[in-house]
Amino acid sequence: MNPGGGSCQHRWGTTRAMAAVAGVLILLVGCTTPDPPAPSQEVTSPAITSTPASPPAGSATPSDVEEMDWGPFPPKNLDAPKDLSDPQFPQTVLTFELDSESGDAASRDVFYADRAAGVSMLASITLGRESYRGAVELLADPAYQGQAVCGHPTATPDQIECVMVGAEHVLTVGTAAESSLQDVAAFAEAIYAVL
Questions:
Q1: Closest-CA residue to 190 (of 94, 77, 92, 76)
Q2: What is the pLDDT of residues 143-153, one digit of tens each?
């Protein structure tokens, strides 16, 4: 009998079983990578007639755009979505002046105010094109207004929001002021154009 309490024969059997399992794992791992072709085998590759240019960093590729499930209101600006990853917000957009800015790399909120008209707009940029569909689905009455999809949020029907998509971000513009869908859409398109 072994002083450790178990028989030597039992531990030896366990050690052999573990060695067998390890051997099987080594064989399985070794089988997952294909062997390189032998020198006598001929390797052919298809002829390349042209090399497509790589899209700019931060922009959506055509296959990415086609694969997205945009819902019933796909963005109208899919032919050239803008890179909104490092937006430089202008001091003035239409009749609105930059009022305040906050946020981080994932989300930016910028307030603009037209003091003469008593109207303010909130422009938000959120990381992730997939948030476009969710933003549109939160609208009770989504409809196209120019390049944007606009409507009244279900949770706050007295407000207006417009949504546009960038290469990897989503721009949402909203106001709680008395304003028309057309006015909010015009602001959304104007700020999108200068970012």
A1: 94
A2: 999 999 999 99
Strand order in 143-145's β-sheet? 92-93, 96-103, 107-114, 119-127, 169-175, 160-165, 148-151, 143-145
User: How confident is the model over 151-160, as pLDDT tens digits?
Assistant: 999 999 999 9
Dist. CA 119–CA 179, nearest whole Å = 8
Q: Give the side-chain half-sphere CA count within 13 A for 50.
A: 3
Cα–Cα distances in angstroms (integers) from residue 137 to residues 124, 163, 166, 174, 180, in the given order: 17, 11, 18, 15, 20
Q: Please name the residues in contact with 28: beta carbons below 8 A apart, sequence gap of 6 or more.
A: none
Res 10: pLDDT: 38
Take residue 6 and report the two structure tokens written for it: 């178990």
Cα angle 167, 135, 117; round to 5:
95
**pTM exceeds 0.70 for this model:** no
Which residue in 80, 73, 162, 74 sits closest to 123, CA to CA? 162
Residue with tokens 């390797």: 43
Residue 65 scores a pLDDT above 50: no
Contacts of 25 (CB under 8 A, 6+ apart): none
Residue 179: both structure tokens together: 């304003």
Q: In Å, what is the CA distance from 50 to each residue of 45, 47, 63, 169?
A: 14, 9, 18, 31
Q: Is the pLDDT of residue 104 over 90?
A: no
